[in-house]
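Listing S7. Sequence submitted for prediction.
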Amino acid sequence: MKKYVLFGMLAMTIHFCTAQDFEKVKKSVILPGQLENAKTEIDKLMNDPKAQAKAEGWMWKAKVYSGIYADEKLRAKYPGAETISNEAFEKYQQMDPTFKILKDNGLQSIAGDIYSTSFNNGVRTYNTKQWDSAGYYFQLAVKYSDIIFKNKWGRDTTMALDTTSILYAGISEEKANKKDVAATYYGKIAQNKIAKIGGSDISDVYKWLVDYYSRLNNDEANALKYLALGKEVFPNDTTWPEIESGIYDNELDAYRKNPNKDSLFIKYEQITTSLPKSYVFMYNYGVELYNYAIDTSSGKKPANSDALIAKAKEKLNKALEINPDYAQADLLLGQIVFNEAVDLKATTKDIKGQKPEDVKKRADIRVAAGKKFDEAIPYLEKVEKLLGPRGKLKQEERTTLKNAYDLLTTIYEQKNVKDKIDYYTNKFNNVDKDH
């Protein structure tokens, strides 16, 4: 008889623990200094599979452990509280995706506690260069800030993102050499077309993404996606054309290695067709065409050298239509015409005779060469007009200006115009000092 009584009492005890409504936990959470009591109670209750089947149980577990996480002393005493709270919150959310029970109990502070404590820990560990820890905490901050903003639990219901947490999650992971994770967070910034965080321009985030996908992952589609977003958000950034060119560098390099350049030129046609406003690609196409047209590594120039040079000029002029201030294109056009003049003048050596007709042929060639030199002058003078009045120049720009002055000096030496020779010689000698 006693055995049956004991069994009945035990059954009653088990039934009581699983059926109660977490009131004891709730009271302990509310009362100051009672979090540890709440922890003891919720741990005991949630050992019961029947309690684990209740959304309310996971909600209160998340609340208790988020409170411990938010308390500096308790956080030190019970390490890993954020992990337990996060896991409990996830299980609660699966059972109550609309957060009805949570809102009925006014427990939106669960997300707030995890977010703010994680953010502060992220700042602390970031400042001490603990990149893995900083990444971990900032990612947790991002997760719960997203929950807060999506459900409008914050004071500012118009906010959609905690851009600071997202940015520093990306930076921390990048510094921890977890570039794939960093790309996820940087991508979130770019996809939301964020231009400034904390008052600072963040165009470098977009550029990092382009480089990451094009150079490190050979993912042209994503590189172009983030390039387009960068150009949209920062339309006045003058570095986009150069970055755009870099996206295709690896692919173009493969074509350049082939002695037959047909595939290279076909690729350039595809690129310039899909990017008709890219003066850099148009310029690079012109450079490739010209370099191949004058290549004598096989013993002689290509049979269609003249056609290739004409096409190179066409592409370079197209680059100038797109960007009239692109001095590099003017310099190369001037160089091409200058080289044509030099080549033409050199043909006089093939006419050896002294007959009147031979003398006339040589004279006519010199006149034609002189006209070619004259044709080159406006391109080179435009380089001076674009770069000469500027103060400090980039190294590439200084080189461009010096080359223009050198060619102009040589042209006027051919024409024997002393004042022009002296003028451009002096300009050439002072480029590094003046710029």
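Caption to Listing S7: primary sequence and predicted structure tokens for the chain studied. The longest strand covers residues 196-197. Residues 356-387 form the longest helix (32 residues).
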